[in-house]
């Protein structure tokens, strides 16, 4: 069992250097602020070149688009370490031969997502990859298809699974698409949240809340 | 005299406006805090209820079972009997993953 996952290279401060195994983190912010990019970089941990598996559920963008993002953002992108669950409904299934991909008909099919995750974990295990970083981009799409209570329960089950398997979860939510109560309810299922915002000058800032520590102030992501 | 009186009135009205704003702020904060406490309690109750139903999560099969249970519970439309059979087949394939 590993003690922690290194994600420190992604943000400039030292608030998130290492997250204990079993941690679930939510990236919350308005649309187009860079949540998905940050999630991919945290999951791939490019700088440390880890051997962790990356299991990413994509609810809106298809798997090809996600692979392109991995190629753009991660210099040492290793397709053998990545497994995708594509819930976008995309018909383009042949484009991805190098990355293990499970297709699920709709983001509302939570059972399909869980079965896809089980299959990909099995494949990782067969390749000797035991530590897995889980991503879900984005919780907001689930909330468009399912009621708040069902999504809340699903996140509860998923984060419990991540905790039980000593994994790491990095999920995203578009805070501008939901009321504050819904965002707070979803946030409560995570050990901590990284909030993102864009200032009027166009600077993207972040702050960290939770993880049993005092909240940090806003700081630039650059 | 008249100008002094006007200035005093303006100052008094400024103070009273600031006081009203502060009072409103305090009231809103209290309401927000009460709302937040109620929300936290609801979330905690919710989590406990889900914990009771999901049980052990030490394998992927337990994970699939727990998700399946919650979707069945909420009667989310997931397709007909054919899809259900397909699901069972897929779940069997995933069986033995990390038992």
Task: Explain what the structure shows.
- The complex is a heterodimer of chains A (222) and B (99).
- Chain A is of the alpha/beta class.
- Chain A is 32% helix and 25% strand.
- In chain A, the strands form two sheets. Chain A has a nine-stranded mixed beta sheet, sandwiched between helices. In chain A, strands 1-2 form a two-stranded antiparallel ribbon.
- Chain A is globular and about 45 Å long.
- Chain B is mostly helical and 99 residues long.
- Helix content of chain B is 82%, strand content 0%.
- The longest helix of chain B has 53 residues.
- The termini of chain B are far apart.
- The mean pLDDT of chain B is 65.
- Classes of the chains: A alpha/beta (222), B mainly alpha (99).
- The interface between A and B is medium-sized, with 34 and 32 residues.
Structural descriptors:
heterodimer, A: 222 residues, nine-stranded mixed β-sheet, two-stranded antiparallel sheet, 32% helix, globular, B: mainly alpha, 3 helices, rod-shaped
- Count the helices of chain A. How many? 6
What's the N-to-C terminus distance of chain A?
A: 33 Å
Per the principal axes of the C-alpha atoms, what is the gross shape of chain A?
A: globular
Widest sheet of chain A: strand order? 6-5-4-7-8-3-9-10-11
Fold blueprint:
The complex is a heterodimer of chains A (222) and B (99).
Chain A: E1 4-6, E2 18-20, E3 24-29, H1 35-44, E4 53-58, H2 63-73, E5 82-86, E6 100-103, H3 110-126, E7 132-137, H4 139-145, H5 148-164, E8 168-174, H6 180-187, E9 192-198, E10 204-210, E11 219-220
Chain B: H1 2-54, H2 60-73, H3 81-94
Question: Summed up, what is this model?
Answer:
The complex is a heterodimer of chains A (222) and B (99). Chain A has 222 residues and is of the alpha/beta class. Helix content of chain A is 32%, strand content 25%.
